[in-house]
Amino acid sequence: MSEILASASGAGREGQGKLRAQNQVLKKGVVDEQANSAALKEQLKMKDQSLRKLQQEMDSLTFRNLQLAKRVELLQDELALSEPRGKKNKKSGESSSQLSQEQKSVFDEDLQKKIEENERLHIQFFEADEQHKHVEAELRSRLSTLEMEAAQHQAVVDGLTRKYMETIEKLQNDKAKLEVKSQTLEKEAKECRLRTEECQLQLKNLHEDLSSRLEESLSIISEKVPFNDTKYSQYNALNVPVHNRRHQLKMRDIAGQALAFVQDLVKALLNFHTYTEQRIQIFPIDSAIDTISPLNQKFSQYLHENASYVRPLEEGMLHLFESITEDTVTVLETTVKLKTFSEHLTSYICFLRKILPYQLKSLEEECEASLCTSALRARNLELSQDMKKMTAVFEKLQTYIALLALPSTEPDGLLRTNYSCVLTNVGAALHGFHDVMKDISKHYSQKATIELELPTTTQKLITTNDCILSSVVALTNGAGKIASFFSNNVDYFIASLSYGPKTGSGFISPLSAECMLQYKKKAAAYMKALRKPLLESVPYEEALANRRVLLSSTESREGLAQQVQQSLEKISKLEQEKEHWMLEAQLAKIKLEKENQRIADKLKSTSSGQVVGVAQEKAAVATATGQEEASAKAVPEPVHSASEIGILTRTSDSEAPDVESREDLIRNHYMTRIVELTSQLQLADSKSVHFYAECRALSKRLALAEKSKEALTEEMKVASQSISRLQDELTTTKRSYEDQLSMMSDHLCSMNETLSKQREEIDTLKMSSKGNSKKNKSR
């Protein structure tokens, strides 16, 4: 709804802006046309006045000419009449002829003046007529242009009116759609309100239930939990975290990829330093022909030692990779091998600092050579700047890696909150290293092409330059791969920093991390020692059936508690009986010993040999409790008698008078009684185990119910949040819809006003153009 309103408002604003611009253009055109029409009206008035004056003069002149023509005719008639009379009366009319000649001369002069005046007036009339025709032609051309412009303006106005009508129709359609949507949204809002009320009731009930359970759990925790080892960070750091095999495998995979990239980078660095040493030996002076400068000799000597500084980088990364196994916990506090890699990188940076001045001086020596051109000198200067940047980038990278190695050696060296910042800076440094290597590759390729054009370039120098270029390209590719690899995994690195003890901020010190690893090894060994072959499990279908029976059981908790209480009472009674019969057995054993002693004393008087034999036999009978077969002799017709300790099977004194048979009977009786008691005890134990299993199943069922209840509470929270969000969206859409409607109504009113004004202006223009055309036609 908001998107539709936004699109409608955007379309309305765009149409309104276009209409305003077009209205302004039309207003300017109308004002200009009005000014031009006013000027033309004034010019027409002046021309009409001048034409009227000229017409009046023409009328007066024509009238005067007619008068003069009539007078001339009269004079000619008089002259014709006077000539015959003069012939007849020559004599008498000499005096009169003189008078007529004078009059004729006067008339001739007057006529000549009138003719000249008439000629002058004819000239003025011709000039005025020509000027009038010229002005009329100009006005007609101007009128035609104005009519064309008026037609164009009329076409523009018609197009605008059509557009306005189309936009009005679109806006009306949008308005109808928005009204329909508003009605649907109102219905949805009502439904959401009903749902919110229901959810609020459920939430209230769940809140009450959860609060009561929370109180119970808090009381149980306060009474039963003696020590909370997660309360203090010092103790929590010693807890073994949950083993995350996927995390360890991912870290080992990442370390393996980093090892491969570092190996490629080390190989490229070795090639770069080696081929640079080879180039110094042959350029600018070939060592096979002449001795090179002491500076280059020292530089070559240092470059010859590059393997002792570059190889340890690969070894340190290999040790770091080997330290990350599936059984360890990989965090910054436990990666001790990162410190050795940082130390190897520091030694390599010392090597770069040592060779940098010699490299810069070597490039200056190449620039001072006689065959060095200005372009080659510029490339050497750019390469010197690039070498400085390369050393600076390595120093920056070493600084951040040394910071990352601090948590495994010094606990206060780097705060845990700064881990993410340091990791992002490492990624930025790697990208900077890639950019520097791209510049070095570009400038060195330009230098190689310039040196290829020199006349003194040898084939050995060309091959050496090609080798250096290949090593620089390999360095560029390796730097780009490492930078992209680190930027792709930096989010995982930052997220994996929280992998550690539960509900803690991490390990306090490297010592605590080491102790945790030792505890982890001990725990793994203990779990391995406890590992036993699994017994045959219950089939899946049977387990599902048992689970359904367990979940569908309708026994109440109180009934199960009563059964458990009864079983406990029975077990306590059986224990008491067991103790009682053990005491009885001890008493019987003591009596038996006394009886044996008494019989032995009696038999001593009769015969010493028999007494010894009888004593040995009785001792053997008293000690050998497991000889049940020897004691089970056939006794004829036994007599059973019941007592408090059970059923005693005995024979009559007349049939078994001897002592041994009586002792055997007593022993057999007690043994059978003990067997019965043990069987009863085993039965009680089996019942107690059964009751314990039932209680455990009920507790699991209760736990499942609690989990489902928690899930329902979370769903209720999500539903309440969605309901509140929908309410907010509904209010915002209503407000925006009302604002849009008000804006649309204002816009329509303004459009109607502008259309009415434009129509009035067009009507006035039409009327003025019609009046002008009529005046021109009349002229």
TrEMBL record:
Swiss-Prot/TrEMBL keywords: Coiled coil, Endosome, RNA-binding
Pfam families named in the record: KLRAQ, PPP1R21_C, PPP1R21_helical
Keyword Coiled coil among record annotations: yes
Source superkingdom: Eukaryota
GO terms under cellular component: early endosome; membrane
Gene Ontology molecular functions: RNA binding
Stretches with biased composition (Low complexity): 94-104
Domain Protein phosphatase 1 regulatory subunit 21 N-terminal: 12-111
Coiled coil: 37-71, 143-195, 557-591, 695-729
Subcellular location: Early endosome
Main location as per UniProt: other
Chain segments carrying region Disordered: 1-28, 83-107, 759-779
Record-given protein name: Protein phosphatase 1 regulatory subunit 21
Naturally occurring in which organism (per UniProt): Bos indicus x Bos taurus (Hybrid cattle)
Gene: PPP1R21
